[in-house]
Design brief:
With 698 residues, the chain is an alpha+beta fold. Helix content is 34%, strand content 26%. The structure holds adenosine-5'-triphosphate. Adenosine-5'-triphosphate binds at residues 13-14, 81, 83-89, 190, 192-194, 227-228, 297.
Length: 698
């Protein structure tokens, strides 16, 4: 890879029709030397095209570069010179007189099409173009709506729009279209002065197969029409044009500086390509991988001698720049190609999958959004449920409170009902007591009447003898015929018998059980005449009471005549004649008062409790109760005060005799009878025996 210098061509434009039309240079076309007449300084060129040199001649000279590009080597052609010196004329020309660019394009298409047609190595080519302009140090893409772009330091055209072109005409159309947007304005020096640097780049991609290997060549041809340097003394520009001119000069000055650095580098010099956009773009063209031809356009009027000198200095400098143009060919084996194709196919599949993944992502996104939406709804429902639960909880608390209050109220009501029931019972009890008291009063009145009658009857009192047969008899077995059944006249009411001990008449004089031989005469309050229900009949009795504790002392049963026999003694002394004198008689004393006269025989039998109790409804209750499969009659006797169950009797001995359920085994005689008293009133007569079993609750 040999280095070669940048090829520098000078093109002298025809003199303008200005007053001073003398030239400031002398040309030696053979030695390609230009001499400045002002100082006789010589400038060596590679080629000099004089004023009348036609466009074809210029193009013919630069053709080798175009050919190199066609063959895979980068090439650059750019025109440098003062404003109005013929740069655009040289590079682009006119429709009638094409410059280098259209001719190069035409040549490239002709050559490649010909190769494509004639070669047998499967030759193919592809051409694309970009058109940029640098205006006031900013880069614009003329094929993309003159959009401003940034130059990429490594891949210059990375951000530029690259348009594939199939023919030279198409390419020229696109080129023209782009260049129409180029910044151009009329100046004193040039009616159509370019105010920007225009860079057209053609990228050629060719390929062919040789020995089963693919040969790919990628080369670029940069064709640059620079904006012209300006001398203010000659331009008479407006403010904008002056500003543009200053920028152009600065840019060209940087180009000159970079060239000087390339040809005269300091040790470890870093070439300042990055100092301007133009030098960045021309980096490969100056000191890099490119064949480069610089056309310096010279306006040779002596008036522009300074500009010409500057241009010639630039030409001399750039001529010293060395480039190393390398063939841009890439050879690929068949296997690599297969692999590349596979990679490409896989890349396609990856793209496809990416697209599908994108869709799936979209779907997932939608699902996620829906899930989020549903979650939001669930959260809202949860909140509502929580609120309702709280309300339910509060309502339940209220309900519990109310139930508690209701329960208390019910209990209070029950208590009140119980109290009312108790009050009613109490009232009933009191009413019963009242009734009983009334009955008692009535009975006492009857007794009083009877006593009065008795007193009258006993006025002719006669002494009696006790019937021994009667005494020896058993009350349970045989004397019932002899015992007179109580009558209305002789028997006090059952209620009287039911009287409690505290209500019993209190003895006034002699104590029962006295051992004196004298007959004991007792006042009326110490005895009472009554009846006792024995074995289905009422037996007349005489009760004699203790004076101290008011309990009954002795009980006498009506004898056969007008006297009474001690019922107890009769049993104790069964079969003995000693009991015959234990008798009592109702009589009158010497004062005419009713009294009881006891027999003279010592009375030794034990004292007895009041023998029986007569109870009226509702102090007892007859119930039909079921015990297992049996139906049984029960008699419940109640306390007269609180109506609690007193004793529980079970039916036995016929349909009207009941035996205590609790003490029936202990005491055979604890029985009750349902009967009528001597007044025909329904009543219950409790056993004469002492009832010792426990009082039961109902
Ligand atoms: N060799 C030439 N033969 C005939 N006419 C020429 C030649 N060179 C330049 N001209 C004419 O001179 C005028 C200015 O030329 P041109 O626009 O190419 O200059 P320029 O260097 O591009 O100027 P600027 O830098 O201001 O754009 C044009 O009218 C052009 O036709």
């Amino acid at each position: 890879m040999a280095q070669e210098n940048v090829n520098v061509v000078a093109r002298i434009r025809p003199l303008s029709n200005e007053t001073n039309d003398e030239t400031c240079i002398k040309i030696d076309p053979v030695s390609s030397v230009i001499t400045l007449t002002t100082n006789e300084k010589q400038f060596h060129m590679d080629k000099i095209f004089e004023q009348n040199a036609p466009q074809e001649e210029i193009f013919e000279y630069i053709q080798p570069i175009i050919a190199a590009v066609i063959n895979g080597i980068h090439g650059t052609i750019f025109a440098y010179g003062q404003t109005g010196s013929g740069k655009t004329h040289t590079m682009i020309g006119s429709d009638e007189n094409h410059g280098i660019i259209p001719r190069s394009i035409e040549m490239i298409f002709i050559a490649l099409n010909e190769q494509s047609k004639n070669r047998k190595d499967n030759f193919k080519f592809k051409i694309s173009c970009t058109v940029l302009q640098i205006y006031c140090e900013k880069t614009y893409d003329l094929l993309n709506g003159n959009e401003k772009i940034e130059i990429h330091s490594r891949d210059i055209l990375k951000n530029a729009k690259e348009v594939e072109v199939k023919s030279s005409n198409e390419c020229m159309k696109i080129l023209k279209c782009g260049l129409e947007k180029r910044k151009v304005s009329g100046t004193l020096m040039n009616e159509t002065s370019s105010r920007s640097h225009a860079i057209l780049t053609l990228t050629l991609k060719t390929e062919y197969f040789k020995e089963n290997k693919k040969h790919e060549r990628i080369s670029r041809l940069n064709m640059v029409d620079l904006a012209g340097s300006e001398n203010r003394n000659h331009t008479n520009n407006n403010k904008t044009q002056n500003f543009e001119g200053a920028n152009i000069n600065k840019s060209l000055s940087t180009l000159g500086q970079v060239i000087r650095e390339i040809i005269n580098p300091f040790p470890n010099q870093v070439i300042s390509y990055r100092s301007s956009k133009l030098t960045m773009i021309l980096r490969d063209s100056l000191g890099g991988n490119s064949k480069t031809t610089v056309i310096v356009n010279i306006h040779s009027n002596s008036k522009y001698a300074t500009e010409t000198k500057s241009t010639l200095n630039f030409a001399v400098n750039v001529k010293n720049v060395k480039n190393t143009a390398i063939l841009q060919e890439f050879i690929t084996s068949k296997e690599t190609l297969t692999l590349k194709a596979e990679v490409q196919r896989l890349g396609g599949e990856i793209d496809k999958l990416k697209t599908e993944l994108g869709k799936e992502k979209e779907i997932n996104q939608t699902v996620v959004e829906k899930v989020v939406q549903l979650q939001r709804i669930v959260d809202e429902k949860d909140n509502k449920i929580n609120t309702l639960e709280n309300e339910t909880f509060e309502l339940e608390e209220d309900k519990n409170k109310l139930e508690l209050e209701l329960k208390k109220a019910n209990e209070k009501q029950k208590k009140c009902e119980v109290e009312i029931a108790e009050m009613k019972q109490m009232i009933n009890g009191l009413q019963n007591e009242n009734k009983q008291m009334k009955e008692k009063v009535q009975a006492l009145e009857i007794i009083n009447g009877q006593m009065k009658n008795q007193r009258d009857a006993d006025d002719n009192y006669e002494q009696f003898n006790i019937d021994s047969d009667c005494i020896s008899g058993d009350i349970n077995c045989g004397d019932e015929n002899e015992v007179p059944v109580p009558t209305d006249e002789s028997v006090p009411s059952g209620k009287e018998s039911d009287s409690k001990e505290k209500e019993m008449p209190v003895p006034m004089q002699a104590s029962p059980g006295s051992t004196t031989n004298q007959s004991n005469i007792m006042n009326v309050k110490n005895y009472r005449l009554g009846t006792e229900y024995i074995h289905g009949s009422w037996v007349k009795h005489l009760y004699i009471f203790d004076s101290d504790d008011k309990t009954m002392c002795y009980i006498y049963t009506k004898g056969s005549k007008n006297y009474f026999v001690c019922n107890k003694c009769k049993q104790i002394n069964k079969g003995k004649q000693t009991a015959q004198t234990v008798s009592a008689t109702i009589a009158s004393n010497e004062n005419g008062e009713e009294c009881v006269k006891l027999g003279e025989i010592e009375h030794v039998c034990q004292r007895q409790k009041f023998p029986q109790t007569i109870i009226y409804k509702p102090d007892y209750k007859l119930n039909k109760e079921k015990y297992g499969n049996k139906v049984d009659w029960r008699l419940h006797v109640f306390d007269s005060n609180d109506k609690k169950l007193y004793y529980n009797y079970k039916l036995c001995y016929g349909d009207k005799t009941f035996q205590c359920f609790s003490c029936k085994r202990k005491n055979f005689f604890v029985i009750a009878h349902l009967t009528t008293d001597e007044n025909g009133k329904e009543c219950c007569v409790l056993s004469a025996q002492k009832h010792q079993c426990k009082i039961q609750k109902l």
